[in-house]
Amino acid sequence: MRYFRKLYDWVLHWAYTPYGVPVLFILAFAESSFFPIPPDVLLIALALSLPKKSFKYAAICTAGSVLGGMFGYFIGLEFIDTFGMRILTLYGATEKYEYIRALYMRYDAWAVCIAGFTPIPYKVFTIAAGAFKIDFVVFVLASLAGRAGRFFLVAFLIYRFGPPIKVFIDKYFNILTIAFFVLLVGGFMLIKYLS
Questions:
Q1: In the 8-state DSSP scheme, what is residue 17?
Q2: Is the CB of residue 32 less than 8 Å from the CB of residue 65?
Q3: What pTM, to 2 d.p., does this model score?
């Protein structure tokens, strides 16, 4: 745990340097395929420092994350037996590999979208998507929806409520995620029912 705390602090310190924005992009890219610390840490710190730029930071974070997801997909597609399985082992996801396959077979884009939005390690799903040869266009669109939904929600909350929202986000992130997806799925079901 001490290692991850040091890594967390190292990520956070970039918010107080002139390199915060490029590091946000790189961090979002890396986290989608292999890095353990989520980019939300740096996104929140940057957005709190300049709330008017919250949405710009969310866009940068989304772009880096989706491109990183594509790299994770490539790892799964071409290198699952070497690098891919090592990364999955690092995150304790090898025993869930077949379960993730079942999720993809049953829910396709929803599995990617939900993994992109929630605290579930997104990198596990990007690598698995490549390994299971999920339709690449569907994967990218679902990743874009999930990642943008997550990062722009954080940006909106900081823009609207300022520094006090950081404590709220940290404390209730999982509950907020579940509520968002209940509303999202409910909206799609309602549209389907009414059409």
A1: S
A2: yes
A3: 0.79
